[in-house]
Amino acid sequence: MNDGTHAMSILIRLQNIKKMYQMGSEEVHALRGLNVEIKKNEYVAIMGPSGSGKSTLMNIIGCLDTPSSGMYELNGTNVSDMNDNQLARVRNKEIGFVFQTFNLLARSDVLHNVELPLIYGGVGGGERKRLARESIARVGLTDRAHHKPNELSGGQRQRVAIARALVTHPSILLADEPTGNLDSKTGDEIMGLFDVLHKEGNTIIIVTHEEEIAAHAHRRIRIRDGHIEHDEPVTDRRIIHHDIAASA
Amino acid sequence: MRLYIDDLREGLLIAFAAIRANKMRSVLTAIGIFIGILSVTLMGTAIEGLNRAFNKSIAAIGADVLYVQKWPWGGGGDWWLIRNRKDIKIEHARAIQRQAELVRGVSPVTGTSRNVKYERKIIENAVIVGTNDEFVETSNVNVALGRFMTAMEVSGGRPVCVLGSEIAEGLFPNESPMGKSVKVGGYPYRVLGVLEKQGSFLGIQSLDNRVYVPINRFFKEFKSFRGGGIEVWVKAASLESLEETKEEIRGILRKVRRVSPKQPDDFAINQQDIFIQAFNQIGAVVAGFGLFITGLSLFVGGIGIMNIMFVSVTERTREIGVRKAIGAPRRSILIQFLIEAAALSLIGGLLGVIVAFPLTLVIDNVLPTAMPINVVAIALFVSVLVGIISGFLPAFRASRMDPVDALRYE
Ligand SMILES: Nc1ncnc2c1ncn2[C@@H]1O[C@H](COP(=O)(O)OP(=O)(O)OP(=O)(O)O)[C@@H](O)[C@H]1O
Ligand SMILES: [Mg+2]
Hints:
With 248 residues, chain A is of the alpha/beta class. Chain A has helices at 2-9, 54-61, 84-94, 110-120, 125-138, 154-166, 184-199, 211-214, 244-247; strands at 10-23, 26-39, 43-47, 69-74, 77-78, 95-98, 172-176, 203-207, 219-224, 227-233.
């Protein structure tokens, strides 16, 4: 019984995950057998030097990529050998991505950008608009709903990306260096937003180079050369008491 | 279902945003399709015009009419032999008139061209037709104003005439031609009536540009096109008995022309079906030529669309990656790019139809016609189809992209 509830709360289970790229005759081992378990509502920072495999790991967790070998269980479902369309569905329902370069659709306004995952999820018009507006409100951009990305600041763009990631109420929020393209003040604002989202019960995984960003998380996983070097709770946590509405 | 509708709507939104963002490129790409659709629409309109002209000018004359002439319609036969045939003469027409029973009307018909004058107005090279009173029957024309010539006027060779509608309009724009005296080739003729407008066939011979005079008068004052030769129009008693009428006339003619039993006919009895065949041949040539141009330009246009769609897919690799990352299935990406290709092609098609419209009005001047609505529908359908076919490869490639690679694309 106890074991059962424990298993239930485990969201991500990676067992001996390996990822290998073939570069001509050379084999690049990006991940060399990782074992990680992440529970619901954890707040994890993944750190490590450049080329250590952080993005590769994120892509596998986010079902954008499949491991060369190993087993990946998401929410109790084995996703390691799903096909393309099944993975697309999992990404749509379970994963919210936030990228370093925002990756918004330049020709669409904020509302449409945020609606997009719902369109692919088959959510109908009225409900879709309502959910999108709700999500935009959560990141404090209600008055920018009809702006195009190029009319927004970097921080605002990243908020739109977060709203888009949140709109389907995914199980995990994945952010690969979400503050990498932002100045430190704006970066802090975005991290403050993640803190709030974590408090609201979201599971968050962030890739970062910066100790200060990692200090927001509750758990820090250090990767080096495709291996986990450290996996430990964060002791020097940094909390920004942040008022979303005021900063919008 | 819901998914498909949203896919379509999203696809349309993106397609039009993409086209708007690349207006110049899109328009240039659509040129091939534009030309293809332009030609298919014009061709359709021309064929429609041929059909209408056919129905109006030829069928109006009557499928139950036989034309006794020296030359067979539709060619064939030995040119020299035919050339050296004895002319068809007025006596032959008289013989048919006297002896044939399965006929409703017999007209000797001959013609030439002369200037027609009324006061200061002149119409040059009008066709002057010499015929008899039964011409109303054999030609199926209706008299719009006044009356046609009578048997008395024909046999007496009276200086009277009946005008085709164009002649009447030309000489008498503001007054009634009835009873007026016109000069035909310098000789005075009194106007008895005006015929109904017939329209022209292929713009070559206008039936309205004619003046009809008694054939007996004609022979006194004019010389026909072909020496003394005439032709004889015979209206059969009924369409059903057309073949029997033809046999009857054949027998009469062979006798009066003294053709020995072993000899073949030294005349031709022409009828509409030969004309219909010739007409169908013209139609087939127009259609074949049009289809060739259409096919070629649609093919070239399709290649252009395929090319630009490959460019579009490559340019938007990152966007494809983003869409996949947030859960777009392959199908949605495929549909998105197919719609974009179809929309590009449809733009060409719409432009083609829009430009074709005024051009069909020009055609209408020569060959009364109208752009058939089904041709427009087919043209637009074809342009969408070409877009989808030529967009398929690029769209397929987009749909199969690896999301990670696509997101990393610079
Ligand atoms: N598509 C690929 N083909 C070949 N090798 C790849 C590919 N993707 C990643 N790699 C290699 O895998 C290793 C891990 O790459 P990854 O992008 O995960 O690093 P990272 O930790 O995210 O680095 P950074 O901090 O610079 O973003 C690198 O050595 C990289 O060169
Ligand atoms: Mg990386």
